[in-house]
Amino acid sequence: MKADALRGHLDPMILAVVEPEPLHGYAIMEALLERSGGELDLPTGTLYPALRRLERAGYLASEWSTVGGRKRRTYQLTSAGQKMLASGKQEWLTFRAVVEGVLRPGQA
Amino acid sequence: MKADALRGHLDPMILAVVEPEPLHGYAIMEALLERSGGELDLPTGTLYPALRRLERAGYLASEWSTVGGRKRRTYQLTSAGQKMLASGKQEWLTFRAVVEGVLRPGQA
DNA sequence: GACAACATGTAGCCAATCTACTTATCAGGA
DNA sequence: TCCTGATAAGTAGATTGGCTACATGTTGTC
């Protein structure tokens, strides 16, 4: 999968994995990897800046903790993030319809 | 639809609309608009550079003509473009599976 | 002692899309 | 006649988010 493809689609995906329960960065990476069937292996240079961006925008809130001597910053969805996630899902459906309307991916 | 969302997905869409028949730039814009149900209204500053890029890459070939006093540059798919389109469709299916695996868009 | 896994982060690069602009022809209505 | 909208093609420059590459430190295992 090309890197560019992710542009503009990563944010809702991150919000989606922290929706059911707050997670720290590393766990978010693992959740994305798992939910994507091993396809979405984000470099830390992508994920961590994205998390800070989402927090700055008010969609996530974070809190430090220490577990087994390791420092974790755990992120949870805010109510603004909840709304953003919902509209992100909606936008995805629109986007998918647009691409498939043009691409007709059935005919290889 | 956000601008970024298109990143990396536009190329195969352009190739797809010129697949059945060669089209000139303006007609490609109209075809995209029509196939997308009016959603994909590309600015010329996006389309024309993209066409040149695709030609430089060998996926499209172009030819000038004049119709009704207006100059047109008509693009057609090359065989490399044909292959690129096929793999682009395949990549789209992968990408879609990744996003939907993470997003579970059913649950709004 | 070394290495993999866990955990977080920054600096700087790159490329595709965008806004805003230019140039030109043709058709139709005021 | 003049103006506008549709047709047609293009460039310059800004933006921005995901990338590579790097830095730092802990824990557990061979």
From TrEMBL, chains A, B:
Transmembrane segments: none annotated. InterPro entries: Metal_resp_DNA-bind_regulator, Tscrpt_reg_PadR_N, WH-like_DNA-bd_sf, WH_DNA-bd_sf. Residues 14-86 form the Transcription regulator PadR N-terminal domain. PANTHER family: PADR-FAMILY TRANSCRIPTIONAL REGULATOR, TRANSCRIPTIONAL REGULATOR RV3488. This is PadR family transcriptional regulator. It comes from Kribbella capetownensis. The lineage of its organism: Bacteria, Bacillati, Actinomycetota, Actinomycetes, Propionibacteriales.
